[in-house]
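Morning run. Coffee first, then this:
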Amino acid sequence: MTPQRLARQAAWRLPLLALGATLGLALGANYSDSDHLSAAPPAGAPTTPPATPDPPAPLPPVVSPPQGPEFPPVVVPELDRALLALQERMQAAIDAYWVTGNFAVAVTDLQTGQTVSVYGDRQQVAGCIWNLPVIIRTLQDVQAGRYPLSDVEATIRQTLWASDASAARRLYEKAGDGDHALGVQRVLDMARGLGLRHSIIDHPPAFPEYSLGISEPNLFTADEVNVLLAALYDGELLDAEWTPWLLDAMTRVKPGLNYLTAYGTGGTVSHKNGFLPNGGSWVDNDAGIVRFERGGRELAYAITFMSEGVQTKYADIPLGQQLSVMAWEHFDAAYPAE
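And here it is:
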């Protein structure tokens, strides 16, 4: 683990001490994503706020990363006050939202590595968010010369364009040399190598028959999705050829899926959706890297929005869009044009 990785992990743990969250394990089956054609609150959505939730459970003590001669002491700067203010606004928006459900958001300044989040350490149903890591895994194989890009390019692009779970299943098969479960294990190994301890992949999303026998459903935390996004953007997962290739491919998403982290920004958004019906309610997730220019320099931030337990289809969308706009307004002001 590099000093850069240790510093980032220490940085994203800080806001967890300030907020805390209840650890939740939601149950249900994964399905392929559906089209999303409306960003308006659905007819009949609740118009009164939900009851005040129980206070969050206390968090365990944060354990500092090991130090040694190869790892100098990690110095984490104090969180920027404006970023903390963004966290407070997002907390207020989530807690005041009129629709019942579990909502989480994480935002990372990719210049500084600082992260703030609301309920960002809560395990939530992941859906097709887990298909981004298998895309990365197959591109690592391409980079290593295990097989040519032509073997997987069309499948990767279809997975991103339509959030197509069937296409992603073929990537797990490819990553496992014909064995879907082995492909899942290789993706899980990559996640554990990044330090993602609370996120779990057991099977290709929507295909539990290829299970590792770990968990049903697949789970992610918003904080750990942002660790993955930051590692991708920083070139820790793919080299200087394949990192920009994937970031560009992640912008090529059909318009019906550009309704959460791609909403209300002035930047270019590389993102991956995860949407599914789940036990009579709905899961709607989106993880993105938003890039923009100031003075000829590219700047970026990562944002992950997760929702589960929403009783009315699409009822999470206004909240997700509100949080996306809040994040953009923060970074637009934090890095003004010269």
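The first strand starts at residue 102 and ends at 109. Good start to the day.
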